[in-house]
Write a structure and sequence with these properties.
Blueprint lengths: L3 H5 L1 H32 L2 H26 L4 H23 L6 H29 L5 H30 L1 H20 L15 H13 L1 H17 L5 H8 L5 H17 L10 H21 L3 H29 L2 H32 L2 H22 L1 H5 L6 H22 L1
Helix pairs in contact: 2-3, 2-5, 2-6, 2-7, 3-5, 3-8, 3-14, 4-5, 4-7, 5-14, 6-7, 6-11, 6-13, 8-14, 9-12, 9-14, 9-15, 11-13, 12-13, 12-15, 14-15
């Protein structure tokens, strides 16, 4: 892999280290929270309602967090929010240690986590173009993908082991510890002040960002594709029930990890992506592949085929995410990057949130397998429809797109000025 961002940017190293640690803990909780709800209720709907509880806070604070990211020191914001999530993890731990844990606490903390994540994520996304050279953005995207993949592979498996060995409280304790370590890493970041053109966060600034996005149909296309794919074919809320249906309780952690394994393999063999310039086509084709793989999960009675299908889905998702990130980071001006990151957060967070509700609702009304197969096929058909409806995304070429050409020149001048200042 291209490791230049880690070698050349100390700030990127701290962001990478923080994310690697904290995402591992978050994936442990990703297993623990639905497991605890399922164990307390035995209900598809109760598990799906976790996603519904997260939806409104994510919408509100995701958009507001994007506006704040463009107006304040991004380092300060990510530190405050990281330690806030430490407190929330501690709340889950305390509740789990009670003789009779409260179900309502799980939903309230899920809502607060969504709100804090909505505030933090745009700033984290907007930091990357500021601390990484323009020609290293693709490498930084791949490294970020690797960070998520390591957490997605190890986190769920570790979560399953912790729950089996000690109980659900141990998973929350581990997550809290990772937030503490991550917060210390973020503390080492240099200041990331707003650009000179920045204005205070306001509803007007949010609206200005949305107007910019509306003028960029290629950007709107990247959001629409991700929303569609996750709404129709996001299977995570069904994993506890898939493990039960297969008659293999031990496989639960591996169901969560399988997609990350496929994503990791795709990352490690991703040299071909540097030769692809029509990034929008890659996003669309990968979304179709994701849907077909999820349909394959619902059609199989074999544990191993299910894991392979999830691995293929993870590979397709990584490819889609890598090219979406390249379009975003190579074309959006810095003074708008936080607000666009807020919209991006909604696109890749609301989709799974609504997808959990759709998947569990269809499973409750029909069956587990019907939910998986119908969602996967609708996703594939949706990808074909969006390819026809979004010609600007299909035609996108990073060599000739005017936004990409402009930002390449702007960032080259900024990097040259920074190098000159460092030399003198």
């Amino acid at each position: 892999m291209d490791l230049r961002p880690l070698r050349n940017s100390p700030d990127f190293r701290w962001v990478f280290t923080s994310g690697l640690v904290t995402f591992l803990g978050s994936m442990v909780t990703l297993v623990a929270l639905p497991f605890q709800v399922a164990a307390m209720t035995g209900s598809y709907v109760a598990v799906g309602l976790i996603g519904l509880a997260e939806l409104l806070p994510l919408v509100i604070f995701g958009l507001w967090g994007g506006a704040v990211a463009d107006a304040v020191d991004r380092r300060r914001l990510v530190i405050v929010t990281e330690f806030s999530m430490l407190v929330l993890s501690g709340t889950l731990l305390f509740n789990a240690l009670l003789p009779e844990p409260h179900l309502w606490v799980l939903y309230v903390v899920a809502m607060l986590f969504a709100a804090v994540d909505g505030l933090q994520r745009p700033s984290l996304e907007a930091i990357i173009p500021r601390v990484v050279a323009h020609d290293e953005l693709a490498a930084a995207g791949a490294l970020n993908s690797l960070k998520w993949q390591v957490g997605s592979i190890a986190g769920p498996a570790l979560g399953g082991l912790l729950i089996a060995a000690f109980g659900v409280w141990s998973a929350y304790a581990f997550d809290a510890a990772t937030f503490l370590v991550s917060g210390v890493a973020l503390w080492r970041l240099s200041a990331i002040p707003p650009s000179e053109a920045a204005e205070p966060a306001s509803l007007g600034r949010i609206w200005a960002g949305m107007q910019y996005a509306w003028t960029r149909k290629d950007l709107l296309g990247t959001y629409a594709v991700d929303l569609m794919a996750m709404f129709f074919a996001f299977p995570y809320a069904l994993f506890p029930f898939i493990a039960e249906d297969l008659g293999e309780p031990w496989v639960l952690g591996f169901l969560y990890s399988a997609g990350a394994v496929g994503s990791l393999l795709a990352t490690l063999t991703s040299g071909w992506t540097s030769r692809v310039h029509h990034h929008g086509r890659a996003v669309l084709l990968a979304a179709i592949g994701w849907g077909l793989a999820i349909a394959g999960v619902g059609l199989s009675d074999s544990v191993w085929v299910v894991l392979v299908m999830l691995g293929l889905a993870g590979a397709a998702d990584m490819i889609s995410g890598l090219f979406r990130m390249l379009i975003w980071n190579q074309t959006i001006p810095d003074e708008l990057r936080g607000r666009m990151a807020g919209i991006e957060l909604l696109s890749y967070s609301i989709g799974p949130t609504l997808g959990q509700v759709r998947a569990t609702g269809v499973a409750a009304l029909t069956s587990l397998r019907t939910s998986l197969v119908s969602g996967g096929l609708l996703c594939a058909l949706g990808g074909v429809a969006l390819a026809a409806a979004l010609p600007s995304l299909w035609r996108y070429d990073d060599r000739t797109d005017p936004n990409a050409v402009r930002e390449r020149a702007v960032r080259a001048a900024r990097d040259a000025a920074r190098n000159t200042a460092r030399d003198t």
